[in-house]
TrEMBL record:
UniProt-annotated catalytic positions: 252 (proton acceptor)
Organism superkingdom: Bacteria
Binding-site positions, K(+): 246, 248, 282, 285, 287
Pfam families for this protein: PfkB
Binding sites annotated in the UniProt record for substrate: 9-11, 37-41, 138, 252
Protein name per its UniProtKB record: Ribokinase
Cofactor binding note of this UniProt entry: Requires a divalent cation, most likely magnesium in vivo, as an electrophilic catalyst to aid phosphoryl group transfer. It is the chelate of the metal and the nucleotide that is the actual substrate.
Source organism of the structure: Thioclava indica
Taxonomic classification: Bacteria, Pseudomonadati, Pseudomonadota, Alphaproteobacteria, Rhodobacterales
Recorded GO MF terms: ATP binding; metal ion binding; ribokinase activity
Residues where ATP binds: 184, 220-225, 251-252, 276
Length: 304
């Protein structure tokens, strides 16, 4: 199975003519409420493909927490390890989108930021059955690293999506604790100082990540596809040809797909082909977790 330790948010998006200036109130035209948070998005992406995905983390005991749990359960994500925290509110993202496509986002981490050692301790039985642990940076990293240690001891691997981009360099313990990292272009630049604009610059950035002690570097390059480097080799996979309309959560669908394929025993190059197709399909649909493809859709894109 796939174990995700990460964030759960309720995204509240309002669509109006323009964004408000500080101190101003504007009337927008419509709004949408959806499940978000990188942890939830990645778990949903793995479950949509048919993976046995468990999501660990926290919501509050409030109505938004119940909404998020219902959404997750409906997509088949196992919310057993998702703790209901009586002391913190469910995380929310308050998103404004203007007619010209500009956005302004405020995230309140709430219960997500309270994740700690107790959450990892509660997970004990989950490590025995999990093959892949997925982490991101919307929840406290210390708990993620503790989970990575347990995952390795149980014989599984950990993939850290360093998103949102870290503000301070990772210590050496981070590079050693996780098996793979999957930075996008911005995150690669934050980690290495190099912007991966083509396969030569991506190869240089990947080498820097490997020199720090990482085993598998996977650089997500948007419409440029993905560059990877690992003990079994390295290479560039061009992006699949699709009509991209909304790139929100492409990276999360990529990571969910990567974990799904690795957990079922695919080789790394094969798992990256699946992930690359998942990321591409996610850009053809609006929304975050709503944009995740099924395995049939992935297989049909890979055959085309
Ligand atoms: P993030 O969403 O984290 O910023 P990217 O934008 O790099 O990540 O997208 C993740 C992956 O999704 C890419 O590596 C690629 O596989 C796929 N992808 C993203 N944008 C496109 C696109 N325009 N066409 C095809 N595939 C895409």
């Amino acid at each position: 199975s796939i174990l995700v330790l990460g964030s759960v948010n309720v995204d509240i998006t309002s669509y109006g003519a323009r964004l408000p200036a500080p101190g101003e109130t504007v009337h927008a035209e419509s709004y949408a409420i959806a499940l978000g948070g990188k942890g939830a998005n990645q778990a949903v992406a793995a479950a949509r493909l048919g993976g046995d995905a468990k999501l660990a983390g926290r919501t509050g005991t409030d109505a938004f927490g119940q909404m998020a749990r219902d959404w997750l359960a409906r997509t088949g994500v196992d919310t057993g390890p998702l703790w209901q925290d009586p002391d913190h509110p469910t995380g929310i993202a308050s998103i404004g989108v203007s007619r010209d496509g500009e956005n302004a986002i405020t995230v309140v981490g709430g219960a997500n930021m309270a994740i700690g050692a107790e959450d990892v301790a509660r997970l004990d039985s989950a490590f025995a059955s999990a093959k892949v642990l997925l982490l991101q940076l919307e929840t406290p990293l210390a708990a993620g690293l503790a989970a990575a240690g347990k995952m390795r001891a149980a014989g599984g691997m950990t993939v850290l999506d360093p998103a949102p981009a870290p503000r301070a360099p990772f210590g050496s313990e981070v590079w050693r604790a996780v098996d793979a990292m999957t930075p996008n272009e911005t995150e690669t630049e934050a980690l290495t100082g190099l912007r991966p604009t083509d396969s030569a610059s991506a190869a240089r950035a990947a080498s820097i990540l490997i020199e720090r002690g990482l085993r598998i570097a996977v650089i997500k390059m948007g419409a440029g596809g993905v560059y990877w480097r690992a003990p079994e080799g390295e290479g560039h996979l061009p992006a699949m040809h699709v009509t991209a309309i909304d790139t929100v959560a492409a990276g999360d669908c990529f990571n969910g797909g990567l974990a799904f394929a690795l957990a079922r025993g695919d080789s790394l190059p094969e798992a990256l082909r699946i992930a690359n197709a998942c990321g591409a399909l996610a850009t053809t649909r609006r929304g975050a977790s709503d944009a995740a493809p099924t395995l049939a859709e992935v297989e049909s894109l890979l055959k085309s």
